[in-house]
């Protein structure tokens, strides 16, 4: 069984763009079996300093995919790449001698 891709969404509780990105992300999460961890930047001074006015920021494997609005094409490409990689690793593991 492959491990689900985990995306990280940095945002704020009162941020309507964060709510919009989270809602727009739902179909992609379902399509790829991915999960999202939502982190409130206001709860951590270092995250607040780093992301401040950029929120929402969507990250996968340490790579910022988009901020302010969901970039569907970029997120889809990142998830598809991760999905292909997981399938290749699973295939290689099943053929190991």
TrEMBL record:
It holds the Pfam family Glrx-like. Coiled coil: none annotated. It comes from the Bacteria. This is Glutaredoxin. It comes from Paraburkholderia aromaticivorans.
């Amino acid at each position: 069984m492959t491990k689900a891709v985990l995306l990280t969404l940095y945002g704020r509780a009162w941020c309507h763009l964060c709510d919009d990105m989270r809602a727009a992300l739902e179909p992609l999460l379902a399509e790829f079996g991915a999960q999202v961890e939502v982190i409130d930047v206001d709860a951590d001074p270092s995250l607040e300093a780093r992301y401040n006015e950029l929120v929402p920021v969507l990250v996968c494997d340490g790579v910022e995919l988009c901020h302010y609005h969901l970039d569907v094409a970029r997120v889809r490409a990142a998830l598809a790449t991760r999905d292909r990689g997981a399938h290749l690793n699973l295939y290689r593991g099943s053929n190991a001698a």
